[in-house]
Amino acid sequence: MTEMPPYHAVKDEEKTSGQSDSDSSSDTDDWDLSQCFDKPQHLEPIKGAERVEHSWRVKEKYKTHCVALVLCLNVGVDPPDVVKTQPCARLECWIDPLSLSPSKALESIGHALQSQYERWQPRARYKQSLDPTSEEVKKLCCSLRRNAKDERVLFHYNGHGVPKPTAQGEIWVFNRTYTQYIPLSMYDLQTWMGAPSLYVYDCSNAGIIVDSFKLFADQHEREYEAQKNEEGTSSIPQVSYKNCIQLAACAAGQSLPMNPELPADLFTACLTTPVKTAMKWFVLRTRTRYADRDLHDLIDKIPGQVTDRRTMLGELNWIFTAITDTIAWSSLPADLFQQLFRADLLTASLCRNFLLADRIMRSYNCTPVSSPALPSLAAHPLWAAWEQTLDSALAQLVTLSSAPHPLDYSHSPFFRDQLTAFQVWLDLGKWCGGRGVPEQLPMVLQVLLSTLHRVRALQLLCRFLALGAWAVRAMLAVGIFPYMLKLLQASAPVLRASMVYIWARIIAVDPSCQADLVNAKGHTYFLSVLQDPTVDSEHRTLAAYVLAGIVDGYPAGQEAALQGSMISICLEQLGDREPVLAQWICISLGRLWRGFEAARWTGVRDLAHEKLFPLLEHSEPEVRAACAFALGSFVWWCGGAGRCEQANALDLQVGVQLAARLPLDASPLVRAEILAALQWLVLIFEQHFIAVYIQERVRRNDRGGPSGRVEAGQEALAGGGGGAAGGRSRPPHYSLPAIGFGSVPVRLFSTLCAMAREPHPRVAQMATDILNYISNQSAQVDSVAEPARNSASLPPSPGTRHHEHARTLPGHGHRRGKSGLPHTISEESVANRDRDSGGDRERHKDSLSSNSSQTCTSKKAIVSTEFVEWAGGAFSRPEPARPDCESREHHQRRWTLARNRELRREARAACRVSRLETQAFHSRCPLPPAVVLFHPYDQHLAVASKDNFGIWDWGTAAKLCVGSWRPAWGRISSLAYLNEHQHALLAVASHTGNLAVYRPSGSSTEPALVSAWRALDVSPPPQYTPPRAQPIYSIAQLVSDQFSSNEDKLATNKNKQQADPNLGGGTVVRWVAARRWVAAGGRARGVRLWDARRELRVGDLAAPGDAALTALGAARPDVLAAGFQDGAVRLWDQRTLAPTHDLRRHAAPVLAAAHSLRADLLVTGCANGEICIYDTRKMAVLEEIRAPGPLAAVDVHPLCDLVACGSLNQCISLYDLRGNALNTIKFHEGFMGPRIGPVSCLAFHPLRCAMGVGSKDSTVSVYVAESRR
After folding, report:
1. Where does the record place Basic and acidic residues bias (predicted)?
2. This prediction's pTM
3. pLDDT tens digits for range 953-978
4. CB 82 within 8 A of CB 89
5. Tens digits of residue pLDDT in 838-862
6. Are 165 and 157 in contact (CB under 8 A)?
7. Phi first, then psi: what are they for 524, rounded to 5°?
8. Whole-angstrom distance, CA of residue 1200 vs CA of residue 1217
9. SS3 735
């Protein structure tokens, strides 16, 4: 499905242009570098969309159950108030009543009218009342209302043989002898008909009936309220006439047309035979080239059936339905359209046909009236398409009738043309801004009814739904949903791709459709798609998403999916390489297990948890998070019946696996989901975590009480917030459950304490909330200790040694019975139980009810995440546009990467040894700078002190942004730019091993936190103390240090390290751009590597000894170099992670170990001023430089042959790689020159010949190689 981006050709051109020398060997093409931390979870908050109430469903949908056909024709007798013309309209239901006897004509007209109605609703119950009396009408209406109950009743009234309705809205019927006209009050008719009802009035002055109906409806409601107030409660239910629909042939004071070329019941003809009426009116109106008499005869003989779309009559009716539906949908308010045109079949058909009646009747000076009122749509432009269709049909009708032998009917191109128009709208829509919904959308609904254009219609519908949630809502509002449900019964493979896509969009926008799918057994369709190996991964992913929506918090959906073997089908798909499919497979399983004990035991039987464990190491963070969600649902106990030993063992096994992944995963998304899963273990084994908590409090109090040092993240153990048990020791006569050393609760509690010290705020807060929950629960131990002492203890678990004076802690929210937990839980017991539980699985499964998800009461979660809801939001958002070589983003990227390439080329061409003596930038900082770092391409300088950092434009001296740093994370010790080639990020590391990645804002606002994690396990965490004042070295001391032996230097250095615990205590990070790695080192053994793209730990580069890492660089492109506090320099191969060299030339902490790209040399420097230059091919020392010490910082320019040494004695010495001193920047240069303080940090620009310097007097400067003016 993915096409090659159009810029690939451009990339190939750029790669082959201008690289004739060694340029290409050392330069990585920026086009090949992927972006890190640029996925949606890094760019937007992880929040699910708020569920909105959708209005596309008909709130009160009634079926027309009964139909009353009341015909007052009195054939042969004209009413006294009507003067008919001669000739005049005579036809009633296309029958001339004068051609038959009066009784026969009346009976034939009644049957004809019933047959016309039956075309639209054959299942309704029809009753005729021909020339009735008022008693007959009452009996008929009351009978139909009793049969219809709460459904709709249709009352069709034809008053062509009686006087016009009176001014009070009374209609006329007959007496028993047909000698008098009897008025029938609308008040009485309302009482008999009840509600909901549909009224059709085909008589003159019909509008007065509609007006009177409203008055009498209000009167009914007032009388009901009065009766209710008098009696207190009314036994008669209130009838609401708001749901009644009325269709009248003309307005008040108007008479029906008497044109002899028209039927007398023109309004009824439009409502019941719209195609025939429209064709006859079209012939009368246009006077076509064919003889009228011949055409009228042919129209009466249109071949086909209304219900058969393959015939002419059926196709014309199909087109007419599509056109009138589109006219109504595009012109009426949504609520009114849903009420009238998406009700039952008969009501919708009559309302559609009413639009034709409005168009035809208005041409004869009659204004049809409706309630609810519909605007006049007679001038809608789509009527022209209908007339064109009629013209083509009439021409073909003449051809078919005059042919000597039968000809096949040629279908109309109407729907094909409409689909083409819809396609044009989709193709050209991107060039139009603010466009509305296409008017062809209702046409697509009608096309879905036929197999001829169904595939194309579904494909275009998929393209339309890809525009976003608004398109889905428009599709649902137009009424396509019932047809999509019916299409689930179609087994054609060609429809699968479109069907799963459309249903995924529907479920994403309106999750309540899950009930419709379950009722229609639609889950079986998606299960079959999911397990079909011939379906591609993309559409199986969509099927998995729909299944996840079906089982989301819906017990009936969970039960249906479980009966359909959803668990085994999903587990079979876990081996697919498509990450999005694996993600939604996990989410589907998690939603199925949530609160559904029967499904969980089915997963236990299929070893689902063991099959999910490998996904915790998946390369995609979303898959790992989804797996953690699934495992969290797997251990979610609904709190119903007592738990068994096997369930406890499985839960602890899952908890151990999840907790083991926390220090290995850099994604906050994954760690948050793991914590959300571990909270269920805290709730399940609540007693044991309380015991661990109290034992830890007792241990800390015994060690020194609350005044002792408490680590961050364990504030609950320090007293106060934990409740009454805060500073107390163990209650008398009350023993806690024995928690063994190394048991699972102890390890999980330690993991939670460690996560509470996380640098990511959200993850740390979740862990803190769980710890606070344990603390609050432990506060109740003292309050129940005395009652518990006098009560009988619960029996111990099988296989558990019973202590005579031990009592179980009281549970909160439930009580554990004989299947309670043992007092000692270890990993070995978990493994043993898991091995021994195979024979007991079926027994435990049978003991559980399949409806446990409905009967048990779930415990309330301590913390929650919205990852699953956020992930599902991707299916409701607009699909991203395909790469466009003419888009602004593409041109901006091309310009950026071309600029980067040009800067690198200029840097290689201009690299030479030069003096850095011109100060181009100088600024003061709130605190002394600890780290400075140049952006390689932008004119940005990042500066960090111990608890804040900022970015300056060192060309204009403008401060771009300032970021805050929490003191609890430790003091800032290192900076690194990630994604330098485009959309650079700033990584900030602290001395405690925490690493945070920020996205600079480019303005005065604070940078946004992208990700944060503990990159290095610093043990023990050093306590920061201000560094001691460094003495100014005398000449005698320098001479003494120069001529002292290596043994003396090592001994002196060891004594200094023991005396100063802060020396070499910071975490150092380096960005390995070619591999998208982050390397970190500090007070830990070796170097830790993190994959920034996968957000996973790659591994550790082991180093012997306990010396802290003090410098990190590269010896060659694939070799990582690190300097240590003991003076050693070690090299590792990045490809194999194996050590290559161990250099021990220095007697002081190493401050730099960097690679010079120009000369292929490795330069190392230590704190006492000793600089060594190695040939990387032989690792032999070529030059040694002695700089005046003590040094605070050393750096090597990667392109120029420059080495800079920053001294605490307020000077900076620069050397070339041959050991020659170039110049020295001292505390003053000439008269009134710039003053510098003791150097705290310095760094070269990666490309330009520039150097940034931070001093302990809270200043930062940039020196460049330019002549002083």
Report:
1. 830-847
2. 0.84
3. 998 989 889 988 888 899 999 999 99
4. no
5. 444 343 434 333 333 333 345 789 9
6. no
7. -65, -30
8. 9
9. strand
